[in-house]
Amino acid sequence: MFQFKNLFKLRGQSSLFTKFTPRNNQLAVRCHSTYRRFNNRTVASHFIYDPNFRKYAGGFLVLSGIFYVANLEPAPVSGRRRFIWISEGLEKKVGDYTYKQVLAENRGKILPSHHPISQKVTGIFKKILDVSPVDESHLDWKVHIVNDPNAPPNAFVLPGGKVFVFSSILGICANDDGIATVLSHEFAHQLARHTGENLSKTPIYAILGLIMYSLTGADMFNSLLINAVFKMPASREMESEADYIGLMLMSEACFDPKEASRLWERMSKWEKRSGISQPEFLSTHPGTERRISNMQKWLPEAEEKRERSHCNDFISFYDFGRGREIF
């Protein structure tokens, strides 16, 4: 109906009168046929029932399925099989471009590398990097502390080895184990190549959106549906995977895995004070309560991994050296 009204609006007010003028019956018929020609459902039906279209579409689906299966590979630590066909080189280019943008946006706010907080966070990150099951030493790793107390608590690792930690999250971390929880989670995204996974799925979402648009003609509704059914659940799955991988890595690096759930409890309190909590199905991240529950469920495995790393052999010296500073 929206298209029908727009059609007459574009043709001018006189088009409304052609339906009631006998000598303009042919014009009225032409208007009606034009409307049918631009109806998305009619066009979609034409293609669906066309034998050649179905043949080519079937071939495309078969080849796409073969391509999809051929590019499935297990993620480190978790073993989840995911679809990645984007090269690490392309990931790095995306990371380098984003790195320049983030530096420009935070010019004058980044602490120097010799600052005590920068050195502390860098030292913790190096311990996590040392236990990585994949050799990441070829990347040019740099840790940046963005000193902006007004920014929301955040941290992220870009493809290519650039780490950003906002000072506003350090108070929530509270101690070295809390910082290790955040850093190991963010490093897990790089280790599992979640950026490459997202880039690999982008053409799939685009094709799906095009198919749905040809059937419904409602672009905004289709975008919301694809986000709710595909993109957001996939993002939440990757975030949960990063939580799991990060917990295992920090445990192997001799940090206390019990602190992970405590960190998320502190984050939950901050979210409630800030009034930014939202239903999980509308978010790209799992709900905080779910993350706490997951951490507690994975804790026995994490503690076993920590014990196998012989952390108890030097835990007293290690605890004395790292301290329990509150930022």
From TrEMBL:
<keyword id="KW-0378">Hydrolase</keyword>
<dbReference type="InterPro" id="IPR051156">
    <property type="entry name" value="Mito/Outer_Membr_Metalloprot"/>
</dbReference>
<dbReference type="GO" id="GO:0004222">
    <property type="term" value="F:metalloendopeptidase activity"/>
</dbReference>
<dbReference type="GO" id="GO:0005743">
    <property type="term" value="C:mitochondrial inner membrane"/>
</dbReference>
<protein>
    <recommendedName>
        <fullName>Peptidase M48 domain-containing protein</fullName>
    </recommendedName>
</protein>
<keyword id="KW-0482">Metalloprotease</keyword>
<feature type="domain" description="Peptidase M48">
    <location>
        <begin position="124"/>
        <end position="298"/>
    </location>
</feature>
<dbReference type="GO" id="GO:0031929">
    <property type="term" value="P:TOR signaling"/>
</dbReference>
<dbReference type="GO" id="GO:0046872">
    <property type="term" value="F:metal ion binding"/>
</dbReference>
<keyword id="KW-0862">Zinc</keyword>
<dbReference type="GO" id="GO:0035694">
    <property type="term" value="P:mitochondrial protein catabolic process"/>
</dbReference>
<dbReference type="GO" id="GO:0141164">
    <property type="term" value="P:mitochondrial protein quality control"/>
</dbReference>
<dbReference type="Pfam" id="PF01435">
    <property type="entry name" value="Peptidase_M48"/>
</dbReference>
<keyword id="KW-0645">Protease</keyword>
<dbReference type="GO" id="GO:0033108">
    <property type="term" value="P:mitochondrial respiratory chain complex assembly"/>
</dbReference>
<dbReference type="InterPro" id="IPR001915">
    <property type="entry name" value="Peptidase_M48"/>
</dbReference>
<keyword id="KW-0479">Metal-binding</keyword>
<dbReference type="GO" id="GO:0034982">
    <property type="term" value="P:mitochondrial protein processing"/>
</dbReference>
<comment type="similarity">
    <text>Belongs to the peptidase M48 family.</text>
</comment>
